[in-house]
Design a protein that fits this description.
Length: 482
């Protein structure tokens, strides 16, 4: 019996069908048993992680299906780069747009103050310094970030126009541009303040002169204390009478006092959530450590962990089946001294911030359907989205996946992801990487996706982002700005 036309679909291992319309069924994921017939249902297929070897052959298929299949060998990766316009659009992303806008506004203000066109900054320079630094801290604060993500996901999920939802995701993903712009601008305003103090040094007390340059040089855990000294001294000295005014009410009424207070609060809050917790470490291979923590998590979150309570925190994507699960996992690939130590000397306890911070995957709830593409250990940031949302399709490309990442990850995939919404490409078993853009385009059309999220290394991310931009597929890639 021939399969109906809607089953003649793209297959990542056996080739590409020439059917040109979307379908909502199993895509590149076809795991065949020798006895599988064309009439068997998709649910009878084996677990997704049980990948076939190159020596395994598909059984005879009805002529209409077999005729649409092409070579099973991995496609050669095109070396041709995207056009300069495409590359410029990806380079000048929302991050750089935010950075450019913030810097332009602040540099304009500094220029106006230098030429005495705008006198306000000359009188309240401290407010411009600390206001910029407060904004920079907010953009990287876990609590404020979670509030922004929660607000957007609650108010705008699914019903708003797609361009608006894409803009929301882009803004949230690239808040680092505001962070960098405000931090740099705060430093420039501080230089402006120090220069003006030095120019008018006869009107300032020696204590103010002393702590202003220190504020520029300071880059230690005590910089918060220096900030407060800077604020108090600056607001307590009267330039007109050349005398101190230690009136607390006067200081509290100054805007830079409240900026400094806000900075202190938002810096301290995450540190109140630090806990030393028990962990179980699974070492499926010398390349990877799988760390299990207690309690479940919502999708799209990242965790910071450390062997000590104060220094050297490292961020990893969280894998969890949901908030009602009893555990969550981190995939830690060996890339440096810290991750290597997790494999060579597995800990029984780790320090972590209980207040997790949100990543771009947290906005997956905005979309009706989507595709999560990842390579290697990037699965750690991607898998939760597909485990907790049945409308998301997983494409995972890696080498010797089951042996490298172990039974825990294989169990999570086979237990929660139906074969029709997952593609696992083992580059070692299949003799190389696939044509990723060909694969993404096929799944995007057939799955009816609205967006693609990508977690990969620099080369893979660049290749896929350029391809998606050329194809008109909305996509968000990996950032390395934090």
């Amino acid at each position: 019996m021939d399969l109906p036309p809607r089953f003649t679909i793209d297959d990542a291992e056996k080739g590409t069908s020439d059917q040109g319309y979307p379908v909502a069924v199993t895509l590149p994921m076809v795991y065949s048993k020798p006895s599988l017939s064309a009439t068997e249902t998709l649910s009878s297929l084996p677990a997704p992680h049980a990948l076939p070897t190159p020596s395994e052959k598909h059984p005879s298929l009805p002529p209409p299906f077999k005729r649409n299949l092409v070579s099973s060998s991995p496609a050669k990766r095109l070396k041709k780069r995207a056009s300069r316009w495409i590359r410029f659009q990806l380079w000048f992303n929302t991050y750089r747009k935010f950075f450019t806008f913030v810097m332009a506004m602040n540099l304009s203000g500094i220029a106006l103050a230098i030429f005495n066109v705008w006198s306000y900054p000359r009188k309240y320079t401290g407010a411009f310094v600390l206001g910029n630094l407060l904004t920079a801290i907010l953009m990287r604060n876990e609590l404020f970030g979670r509030f922004l993500y929660l607000t957007v996901n609650t108010l705008f999920a699914k019903w708003t126009p797609l361009p608006f939802r894409l803009a929301c995701t882009s803004v949230l993903q690239h808040l680092g541009g505001i962070h960098s712009g405000c931090a740099t601008s705060g430093f420039l305003w501080l230089i402006f303040r120090v220069v003006t103090i030095l120019i008018h040094h006869k009107n300032n007390h020696d204590a103010v002169l002393k702590y202003s340059p220190q504020r520029v040089r300071k880059a230690s855990p005590l910089h918060g204390l220096v900030t407060w000294i800077f604020v108090v001294l600056g607001d307590s000295y009267d330039l007109e009478t050349h005398s101190w005014n230690p009136d607390g009410f006067h200081i509290v009424r100054q805007q830079d006092f409240w900026f400094a207070f806000g900075m202190t609060v938002f810096v301290i809050i995450p540190w109140f959530t630090i806990r030393e917790v028990k962990v179980d470490v699974e070492i499926p291979s010398p390349k990877v450590a799988i760390i299990r923590f207690e309690r479940g998590m919502q999708q799209g979150l990242l965790a910071r962990i450390s062997r000590g309570s104060i220094m050297e925190y490292h961020a990893f994507g969280i894998i969890s089946e949901g908030i009602h699960s009893k555990e969550h996992y981190l995939i830690c690939g060996v890339q440096g001294d810290f991750t290597r130590s997790l494999v060579e000397n597995p800990p029984t306890h780790l320090w972590t911030r209980q207040l997790k911070f949100a990543g771009v995957s947290n906005t997956s709830t905005l979309y009706k359907k989507g595709i999560r593409v990842c390579t290697g250990t990037g699965l750690g940031a991607a898998l939760s989205t597909c485990l907790q949302n049945p409308n998301w399709y997983l494409i995972w490309i890696g080498s010797d996946q089951e042996k490298t990442f172990g039974p825990t990850i294989s169990r999570l995939i086979s237990k929660n992801l139906e074969p029709e919404r997952v593609t696992l490409w083992d580059s070692k078993q299949r003799g190389g990487r696939p044509d990723t853009m060909k694969l993404i385009k096929e799944v995007y059309d057939s799955w009816g996706a609205e967006v693609v999220f990508i977690t990969s290394n620099l080369q893979g991310n660049t290749e896929m982002m350029e391809g998606c931009k050329e194809a008109g597929i909305p996509a968000f890639g990996t950032l390395w700005d934090f």
